[in-house]
């Protein structure tokens, strides 16, 4: 095994999923890889680490004094500092645009350790999403290697003056993870039923013959009235089409749950029976739901990507997306959170076969399932050069 050491600084659900293929690709090449779990998504992280067969070397005990972003950043700075001092890696890897990723890049810079940024170059060039847009811009100034998933992301980095020699377009590792997981489910290597809440299992059994819509919404920009509008649109659609059911794993944030539930309290019981509000589901269960659904209504970036791997149309409950490639390919539409706009596009997908088929992309614009291997190849080659 190589004495050269890599460290992945991750802590949210999307980071764990998207870094897992890179972790295993490096390990398969005999590389030593450490994991620092930052604790941002503590309640769901343990199962994900187990599912992907990864064991954190350091777990940061987040002792936040408040829910403010500044409190999270301050808590992470000390935790990541301790992890780097303890593990002494040669390269630090961060993923995406979370606070964990930003702090990991910052502390690594302070230690003069080169940073590899997985899923680099995504931009909306707007304030939203907050704070992710600024996080990824700042990481772009700190990272040594940039691994954009698409030509557009690569061009965004070049536009910002990043040296072309440090940019490696590789595709998105989320496609690697999604394809691997679906294959495991298909070959019974994963007992997906055991990962589902009991209410969801019962709902799926009872509504087996219905067309299913998968809904997720969690972004700060949609808290309050926007997420209530999404709930209102979902209820109206289910009321209009008796053969349609909706599955909505509710984000654990109490404010999100309260807004959705308060809106759906006004819905007739006969309609509410076809809407499953359930707790957040595990990754394999989510991939199974994506495979079952006819399309998804979401504000999640990861689900936009994962749905494209399975040719599932996506209605994006936002006014902009840093994954414009799927919109350009015809696989997604920006519908925002206006009730009438959402309903118009949902009705089209449910009633017009030609429109539905036109949104089933034959090839995901985000990758082919080999992104992690490309990243591992680049890092292994760069390791031999030691030009940083």
**Radius of gyration, CA atoms, in whole angstroms:** 21 Å
Query: Total helix count?
Result: 17
Task: Give the strand line-up of the largest sheet.
Answer: 3-2-1-4-5-6
CATH architecture classification name of the largest domain: 3-Layer(aba) Sandwich
CATH superfamily membership of the largest domain: Glycogen Phosphorylase B
Short précis:
The protein is an alpha/beta fold. The chain has helices at about 15-30, 40-50, 70-85, 100-110, 130-140, 150-160, 175-185, 200-205, 225-240, 255-265, 270, 285-290, 300-310, 325-330, 340-350, 355-360, 370-385; strands spanning about 5-10, 30-35, 60, 90-95, 115-120, 145, 210-215, 245-250, 275-280, 295-300, 315, 330-335.
Could you characterize the architecture of this molecule?
With 388 residues, this protein is α/β, with parallel strands linked by helices. It has helices at residues 13-28, 42-51, 69-87, 99-110, 132-142, 151-159, 173-186, 198-206, 225-240, 254-264, 269-272, 283-292, 301-309, 324-328, 339-351, 353-358, 371-385, and strands at residues 5-10, 32-37, 58-59, 91-95, 115-118, 145-147, 211-216, 244-249, 275-278, 295-298, 314-316, 332-334. The strands form two sheets. A six-stranded parallel sheet has the order 3-2-1-4-5-6, sandwiched between helices. Strand 5 (115-118), helix 5 (132-142) and strand 6 (145-147) form a beta-alpha-beta unit.
